[in-house]
Amino acid sequence: MTNVQIDYSETDTKGRYVATTPEAEGEAELTLSKVTPKLIIADHTFVPDSMRGMGVARLLADRLIADARERGQRIVPLCPFVRAHARKHRDEVEDVIQW
């Protein structure tokens, strides 16, 4: 899937990635909570039925990981999808995942 737009918005304590694509209705999301400026919790990932099987959740997780790496943050993978993704790619993400 190449035509996915991912946007990020945040407040003082929360963050939200939203993925949209002209190929499907609705939006997928990955939410996070900010514990400290250097520690965040991946709370929840949701992909609507219209986007299932397109790899959107992985794109959201990869963006979260890339952004955390760039900001010098660690991620606590509370969300089951992010946790499974981090376990599957443990060697690639060990610098940003806080087990």
Automatic annotation (TrEMBL):
Domain N-acetyltransferase: 9-98
Record-linked InterPro entries: Gcn5-rel_NAT, GNAT_YJDJ
PANTHER family: BSR4717 PROTEIN (PTHR31435:SF10), PROTEIN NATD1 (PTHR31435)
Name of the protein: N-acetyltransferase
Organism: Gymnodinialimonas ceratoperidinii
